[in-house]
Amino acid sequence: MKKQKSPQLLRAVGLISLAALLVFQFVGAFLTKPAYADPITARSLTLLAGATDGGSKPGGTVNHKFAFTLPAGSSVRSIKFEYCMTAADVGALTCVAPTAMNAGSVTLADETGITGMTMHPATGPDFNSYYLSRASAFPLSSATAVSYTINSVVNPNFGVLPADQNKTFFVRIYAYTTPDATGTIIHKGTVAASVSQQIVLDGTMPESLVFCTGATVGLTLSVPDCGTASSGTISFNQLFSPTATATATSQMAASTNAGSGYSISVNGSTLTSGVNTIPALAAPTVSTHGISQFGLNLVTNTIDTISTGLPLAPSSNATNYRGQPLPDYGTPDSYKFASGDAVANSGNTVLGGTDAQIYTVTYIANAQGSLPAGNYATTLTYICTPTY
To answer: Relative to the CA of 305, which of 68, 124, 197, 370 has its CA 20 to 30 Å away?
Structure first.
């Protein structure tokens, strides 16, 4: 005959089984991984310059550009940006606002990815968080890259010491399905940025005059360079004659930052051989064969069908190049020489500073048939005077 279990035994076994199930469920509740918001990826924060302040200036009013990717599988209606001293999952979860940071006057300047957002600036007491919202939820059917440029953010300012001027802060980014950035966080991520002390560079441009003369003045990297000036000992191109005009050229270069520019004068005597001289042209005059003449000008000429001299180079433009021959020495095929005369200045349009330009000076010598033989020479000195 089969032995029956007692009701008391069955009841005890049932209680034990129920207790075991409850224990399993209780332990399981602690062992099961809690649900977290899906992470925001490809996160970055670029600190952009504001109207007057550099992007990472401590306490500067600047612009912050966020770029990140929201994962697929949900809909977003608002995104919150919270400025803290720690990342969202590091240390205390409580957000401590960075010192002196203020987002109470921020505006949305640019948006891509999820657009149609409205800015909700930060409110007190900390002014360290603001959010964007849209009229309707945006479905994330696939991972979506977004970017937002936030203008008029006041950067944190931790103090005046270098260690305080160079300091990191964090911005926690949260996405919500609600229009006011409340409720369950569906996506989150953190970006880091740092304010940094500004590097102040200081330099002085002194009063400047660069002036040189020589047979030629060359260029270095297309800029007139007095370091290339050649010897100033120059010979005429031919023997003096009553039937041809002898010519020679020299060059000079000048630049200055003087507010009233420069003036160049020529000083010396006419061509002389002992007691004999070739008369200088006291007024602008054309070259004439058979008459003893000495003169110069600072332009391109045609002498006996041959071109001589060069135009001012670079040519003047009334801004950074202001050099010009003066009227008595600036007419082609017209020559003059009077010691002490100003021959050029930096007065193109108005007197002022100028970058370097090269002048070419043309000299002529004509001789009448009775001019005594001899070696005729002169020493000319050009003086450049800037006025500051």
So the answer is: 370
